[in-house]
């Protein structure tokens, strides 16, 4: 068994092997990037799998081409079919990504349906074109030839490309500049490669350029994802710091020095609170109204977190102010309730137990 190892073929194999290796490394990097959004990770895993499949089938066809045998003949048809099929799926993936990023709300559904039917059309053309030799064929020497209907295999991907350009132009203001640039490079680079390739017959420069454009697009999108992740981490750290500070402020507002009344030998009192979150709406309080009366409060504000903590602080202050005026427990709660309800658009409430102990 002899392989065709001309200089052009060696260069092509180098391009293809490099492409497979680079895409494989990107796939591993994606799989290891736990902080990437799941949808982004899944997308690029599928995307690079399709690219690896495409260029692997292209390499397999190139290696087997010209080798005699009926088994090789059948294998050539299979790998070429998979090659053409994966190219269509890759084009569809890019179109769906651009559609998603462009935020084309009005046209999104119609375009998504159009892309779906274009993909179905490409599958049908690939199946019929391969089995009937309408798109390509291999002669008795197992040499690849384009058939009269070869252009049919490019119709659906070409229409997808037109849709991509339409989206990038019409919804350019919705797409981040860096991402928009990578899309244009991914679209234009293969066209430029075809022009260059036409001057060097047989050289598969388009594979190298397509892989490079895909990796660049991936790196930019991942970089943006990383920047967003870092920003989220900074914001999360800032929020945690602020919540920790708010928790300490809330703790300092409650009695926390014991013994609370060291000069009073006839009684002792102790209280503590553990909020459900960093800050919460539960609170307690105790204080001397006068030399013979100890006021004690236990309360639970509706809700949790910062809103409940803010409402708790205002409720505690209003309760204490009314109690220090020497009112009865009933009057304290009545006046406190009136004050809380006077300006309570969120309709929060507090459940209170209040008692005044006559020490003598």
Description:
This protein is mainly alpha-helical and 360 residues long. It has two domains: 7-233, Rhopdopsin 7-helix transmembrane proteins; 256-358, PPM-type phosphatase domain (Phosphatase 2c, domain 1), CATH 3.60.40. The chain has nine helices and five strands. The chain has helices at 7-32, 38-64, 70-102, 108-131, 152-170, 177-198, 205-253, 305-323, 329-342; strands at 136-138, 144-146, 282-290, 293-301, 350-358. Strands 3-4-5 form a three-stranded antiparallel sheet, covered by helices on one side. Strands 1-2 form a two-stranded antiparallel ribbon. A hairpin with a 5-residue loop joins strand 1 (136-138) and strand 2 (144-146). It is rod-shaped, with a radius of gyration of 36 Å.
